[in-house]
Specification:
Shape: globular
Strand content: 35-45%
Strand order of the largest sheet: 7-8-9-10-11-1-2-3-4-5-6-12
Structural class: mainly beta
Radius of gyration: 29 Å
CATH topology of the largest domain: outer membrane lipoprotein receptor (LolB), chain A
CATH architecture of the largest domain: Clam
Helix content: 10-25%
Length: 656
């Protein structure tokens, strides 16, 4: 994104102060207390109107009102024009545009969710339309899914730029609309356009904010922004006798019918849908001839090439919704040809009715399998059930996954959650449910990585979400350690390679099709993309600079792709067609029978593919059923393969 316009920069400077600490207010007088109570009553009525609204529309303008000392006449200078259309639970259209064209052109943004998909556009990235699946319920954190656009529009708190959206999407009826404001006062009524309005004044870190509220319908008609702290920068020569910046709301309607086209964002001629915005390169040098000019021109050519490659990998070529039309075709079971596969044991339906994700413990040799969304079953090396550990009662029953870790004291930790689930359930080594995290409703969990990357001796829960929450780090006692909202729909979190200082990193994939690398503290290091590939999942080689990713080519067509840490594609292995319709670990780095190492890839059609480090097929196992869990390890008897299906969990021995 380009730098903001001059007017927007002034506005941001004003609004940035509003996010500061409010400080301790002086003890109020009895009159102030009475005024505060009256102001709160008006604010509560306004908030209730927005929270109870089934639909809402408006057009608004951020305007500077000023009176020059030499003229004595009030003038209006519009900064920005905005509009909102909203319909519960998940339809919205938000537009933002400069009111006048500046030196760098007119900034224009749009976000539109029609209940099925949510699209975004920005004129700084022409002909690119970001597209994602619309969340079931819109929240203040997920209604702008594209991270770059979200960062640009929400450089300040939502209530300071879109207070109506903050109230419409509020999940807590008791949360103050402006949490950093204090000293509420109900001012005398005043007219606007010949109509009287309630006025509520609040003190903020930047000065006084005044809300103009309709006396009958209790909607917000105007918000005067506090500018006391920035008055000097706006009017350095003291040329103005009065100055105010207001957010004026026009054409406000509640609960009216809204045409479905209002929530659409059409793809322009020559445009494309993308998983992420890709910033175009700067303009080409205008002259050539000297060595320096020729070098600059050559460097610009490289920038253009990298831009075209990044844009190609970000482009969505098929529907993100029509998964049903790409269901995989499952063939008969075919055992590996060069390895000897022998069934060791198989669970009974009476023990585990809906086998899912499975984990093989290297320390104990025990297997842990998720039974639907209700319990974790623990089995020994013979398949005997050692325990059944119930999860807290919850709604989800499919898409689950398990994670395990061991702390520095040798204590085991077990975690159950799932794609689209609301919570992570953490168990200690005595199988006590010590934590259910988080405690607030959201759009769904995408993945969880449980590991100690900070060297404290205790694992950290790295939780990735759908719907704009990004990634959060959580301690075992439930404390939030960090939050990184750079990603929208998180698909996978795993360990990354050590950085230049030898410190561990996290690799995160999302619907952007790239790998976002984070530090253990959750800070963004950089974003890695493999040229021409949209990566959904990755696995790392623990010692070499060669890694494997699952890349989507088009709907129902996936490849395993080898790549280096700088994004260079090394090889490509085409998987059988079909879309993944059950949750299963896609790629793992494993040890093969005989001691060689490589990649185990689970395809959508229930087949397992073992590839060597250079992407060559070593062996294949067509399982004959859709696979819901797979794990591989070694014990004293050799290589063990655990495979879950909807019917049972089976242990196989594999030998060269």
């Amino acid at each position: 994104m380009s730098s903001p316009s001059k007017q927007f920069a002034i506005l941001l400077a004003v609004l940035a102060l509003l996010t500061g600490c409010s400080g301790k207010a002086p003890s109020p007088s009895p009159a102030a207390i009475e005024s505060d109570i009256a102001a709160k009553e008006v604010l509560d009525k306004m908030r209730a109107v927005y929270r109870q609204a089934k639909s809402y529309t408006d057009n608004s303008t951020i305007v500077e009102y000023s009176v020059a000392r030499v003229r004595g006449v009030e003038t209006e200078l519009p900064y920005h024009q905005l509009s909102v259309a909203f319909e519960r639970p998940n339809k919205i259209c938000v537009t933002y545009a400069d009111a006048v064209e500046g030196f760098e052109g007119k900034t224009e943004y749009k976000v539109a969710a029609n209940g099925t998909v949510i699209r975004s556009s920005a004129n700084e990235v022409p002909l690119q339309i970001h597209e994602a699946i619309a969340p079931r319920t819109l929240t203040a954190k997920n209604f702008i899914p594209e991270p770059l656009l979200r960062a640009e529009l929400l450089q300040v708190s939502l209530e300071n730029i879109f207070p109506q959206i903050a109230m419409l999407l509020s999940e807590d009826g008791q949360q103050p609309i402006f949490p950093n404001d204090h000293q509420r006062r109900l001012l005398t009524d005043a007219e606007l356009g010949g109509k009287p309005y309630h006025r509520v004044q609040m003190a903020s870190p930047a000065g006084k904010r005044v809300l103009w509220i309709d006396q009958k319908a209790y909607f917000l008609r105007r918000m005067e922004l506090p500018i006391d702290e920035r008055r000097q920068s706006i009017d350095p020569n003291k040329e103005l006798s009065s100055l105010s910046i207001c957010l004026d709301f026009e054409d406000v309607t509640f609960d009216a019918g809204i045409h479905e086209n209002s929530f659409e964002l059409e793809i322009p001629t020559g445009g494309r849908r993308v998983r992420r915005f890709v910033s175009p390169p700067p303009s080409a040098p205008t002259s050539a001839g000297t060595d320096a000019e020729d070098e600059a021109l050559a460097e610009h050519g490289k920038l253009v090439q990298r831009y075209e490659q990044a844009l190609a990998s970000a482009t969505i070529r098929d529907s993100i919704l029509e998964v049903e039309f790409a269901r995989p075709e499952v063939g008969p079971q075919n055992l590996p040809e060069t390895w000897q596969a022998e069934r060791i044991w198989q669970t009974l339906t009476s023990d585990v009715s809906r086998p899912g994700d499975v984990v093989l413990s290297r320390e104990s040799g025990h297997a842990f399998v998720l039974d639907g969304g209700q319990a974790i079953l623990e089995l020994d090396a013979t398949g005997s059930v050692l325990g059944r550990h119930l999860l807290p009662v919850h709604r989800e029953s499919t898409g689950g996954f398990l994670r395990t870790s061991v702390d520095s004291q040798g204590k085991s930790w077990h975690l159950a959650s799932g794609v689209g689930w609301q919570q992570v359930y953490l168990f200690d080594d005595a199988w006590k449910n010590v934590l259910s995290f988080p405690d607030r409703k959201h759009s769904g969990i995408g993945d969880v990585y449980l590991a100690d990357l900070t060297g404290t001796g205790k694992p950290i829960m790295h939780v990735g979400y759908w719907g704009g929450l990004g990634i959060q780090g959580g301690a075992l006692d439930g404390r939030r350690l960090f939050a990184n909202r750079s990603l929208d729909h998180v698909l996978q979190i795993t360990s990354g390679p050590a950085d230049s200082e030898g410190k561990p990193t996290l690799w995160c994939t999302s619907t952007r099709g790239t790998i976002l690398e984070l530090s253990p503290a959750g800070k963004t290091s950089h974003e890695l993309y493999v040229v021409g590939q949209a990566l959904m999942a990755v696995a790392r080689h623990p010692a070499e600079d060669m890694h494997c990713g699952l890349a989507i080519k088009e709907l129902g067509w996936y490849s395993a792709v080898g790549f280096s840490a700088d994004g260079t594609k090394l090889w490509d292995y085409q998987l059988p067609p079909g879309e993944y319709v059950v949750q299963v670990p896609r790629i793992q780095f494993v040890e093969f029978p005989g001691g060689e190492q490589g990649w185990l890839v689970a395809a959508a059609n229930g087949s397992l593919h073992w590839l060597d480090e250079e992407g060559n097929l070593v062996e294949r196992f067509d399982y004959g059923e859709l696979i819901t869990g797979v794990a591989m390890g070694t014990d004293k008897n050799g290589t063990v393969l655990l495979v879950s299906t909807k019917k049972n969990l089976t242990a196989w021995s594999l030998n060269p």
